[in-house]
Amino acid sequence: MSHDETAGDGPPVVGLEHVTRTYRGNPPVAALQDATFSIRRGDLVTIVGRSGSGKSTLLNILGLLDRPSSGRFVLDGHDVTGLSQSQRTSLRGMKVGFVHQSFQLLAHRSALENVALATLYRGDSSARSRSRATAALAAVGLEARQDQLPSAMSGGERQRVAIARAIAGEPALLLCDEPTGNLDTHNGAAVVETLLARNASGVTIVLITHDRELALIGNRHFEMSDGRIREKPSPGGA
Questions:
Q1: Which is nearest to 62 in space by CA: 41, 42, 80, 43?
Q2: What tens digit of pLDDT does each residue of 35-83 get?
Q3: Model's pTM, two decimal places?
Q4: What are the residues whose beta carbons fall under 8 Å from the beta carbon of 194, sequence distance 6 or more?
Q5: 225 pairs with which residues across the strands?
Q6: Helix (H) or strand (E) holding 60
Q7: Range 29-40 burial, b when 16+ CB lie within 10 A, else e
Q8: 78-108: buried (b, 16+ CB within 10 Å) or exposed (e) per residue?
């Protein structure tokens, strides 16, 4: 598969300047070293690398779950470098959606309730949350399954519910950590098609994967090794 959409011009959604993350220890561990790159609105960025290469550290920084040790990070026009924890939490709720390898759905809540809770916790009214959840489930092709519990769904359907939950608040950035890692080929392909459709509608996506074939869906491709990230030429030189 390939991604042929042209990313938007405008200001970048993500801008990193010489970002480093070092964890204390003896010796200290430089999990992320001098990361400098930007992500444009509408990009689908894929990142590959071995375990321990720094992918999770980078994702946690992009998702405002961790702070850089040094450098500057701008998220959708907001310089987050000096924000307080509460400001970062608020910005994360407004600007970032997460899709994890393990779906992290509440077992005793319907698909609609799982998705609605994402914006309800952010401060939306109950009616607004349900409206957004209904629209998000329709966007991933699950409007007919909104009253089902996760246990009544396939792995692929559960992951699509997780995607709906992540996009319900219309985030500027969707972060996907091994989104097909727990799925068989058929369900994995359905999730990939869902992500491609969301990206084609303008959602900016960063996707971490061990699957180098899956990594080809992006319009930009990065590789991480020993805490350093570099952009690779797109296949075919595009």
A1: 80
A2: 999 999 999 999 999 888 999 999 999 999 999 999 999 999 999 988 9
A3: 0.90
A4: 140, 141, 160, 163
A5: 228
A6: helix 55-62
A7: ebbbeebebebb
A8: bebeebeeeebeebbbbbbbbbbbebebeee
